[in-house]
Each structure stands twice: as C-alpha cells, then as structure tokens.
Design the sequence.
C-alpha cells in the first residue's frame, strides 16, 4: 500500500514526517490499516521482528493525539526498553507532541503527566499509577501493549493480565493495540481483547536456519 493512500486519514503533520522516510507501507502495516487501525479498532499484531509493528502503534497514537482525541500510553516490559522507546519517539515526534517517560517511583501518581501526550511506561509502573488513582488516566484514548505475549510469562504475566483487564474497564472507549513477534494462541488472545487479528510473516531480511559444525554452516 502506497503511503499516499492514507494521506487523508492521518494528520498532515504526521504525514509530512512519514513521507520523508517511507514511500510504501509494509505488509503488516497495510493489513492493520485495512482492519481498522485508523478507525479506532482494537488490533492484535503478530509479525516478525523488524516487520514494522512500532509504526502501526505510532500511527494510532499520533492520530489520536494530534486530532485531540486523547493521550496515548505505550506499555513495555522493561525499563531499558522504555528508555529506548522514549528516546526514539522524542527524537522523531518531540516537536509535535510532548513525550514522557514514567518508570521511576512506584509510590507516586506522577500528576505532572497530565501535561504530556505520549507516555511510555512499564506494566508495573502503570499498575502503580492506577492504584494511586492518577487523574490523567481517564484522558487516555490509545493503549499500546508491546511484547503482549508476556501474558504467558510466570513472572510478569499475571500483572499484565490484571492491568489489561483493569484498563479495559476504566477506558471502555480506548483503542488497544497489542504487539508481539510470537504468540502461541493469537486467535484466543484477539478474541479476549475484542481485537482484529493481524498476522504476517514478512521480514526485511530472510530468516535462514542451519547447523554450524567444524567452522561450516549447512543450511536447510
């Protein structure tokens, strides 16, 4: 799908940034658009690493923010990943929106976040924000959950599952975008999220499997 196809569906400021970097959407991005990404539909995106999942999330978040629908929150499993996303988003969109990183004190409601548009946080921190009744939570219109397959993780899974359940109750009209490179039961998870399922196996570099022995690799 040519980027120009969605020119009239996204804010002009966002399109002006994207057209300098890309001419066409990748397969997963095209499928996401076709399944209602820009119409506020919930999506579960299961595609390989580097296939363009993050841009899917960015399209939903920036459209919501720039059109005045509400804030966006980007949930990741690790503080290091949160910091990385914060740097990337601030560099790319910092002149358009206010980007914040919230990964610190879990005994704070971080009331200052009411002044920010895109908030990157961890599931544990967001769980704490909810428990502290952060008033700005009601202003969220887009929820992005990166590495959503960690629902199956014995350590982080229960917290993430409860968090998603609470968010769905608190923010009934918000758009949910779940992202993962690998999900064992994508159909069931999509049904639970009431989301459209986007599955694609395209990757920028072909994945090859082989066996290394005595300095040589024999590919399948």
Sequence:
């Amino acid at each position: 799908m040519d980027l120009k196809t969605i020119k009239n569906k996204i804010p002009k400021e966002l399109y002006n940034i994207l057209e300098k970097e890309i001419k066409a959407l990748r397969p997963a991005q095209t499928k996401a658009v076709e399944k209602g990404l820009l119409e506020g539909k919930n999506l579960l995106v299961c595609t390989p690493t580097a296939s363009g999942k993050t841009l899917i999330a960015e399209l939903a978040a920036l459209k919501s923010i720039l059109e005045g629908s509400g804030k966006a929150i980007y949930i990741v499993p690790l503080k290091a990943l949160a910091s990385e996303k914060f740097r990337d988003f601030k560099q790319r969109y910092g002149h358009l929106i206010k980007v914040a990183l919230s990964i610190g004190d879990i005994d704070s409601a971080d009331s200052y976040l009411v002044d920010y548009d895109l908030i990157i946080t961890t599931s544990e921190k967001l769980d704490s924000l909810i428990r502290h009744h952060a008033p700005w939570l009601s202003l969220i219109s887009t929820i992005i959950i990166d590495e959503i397959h960690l629902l199956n993780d014995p350590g982080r899974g229960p917290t993430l599952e409860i968090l998603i359940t609470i968010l769905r109750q608190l923010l009934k009209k918000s758009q949910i975008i779940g992202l993962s490179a690998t999900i064992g039961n994508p159909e069931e998870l999509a049904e639970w999220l009431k989301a459209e399922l986007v599955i694609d196996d395209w990757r920028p570099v072909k994945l090859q499997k082989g066996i290394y022995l005595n300095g040589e690799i024999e590919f399948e």
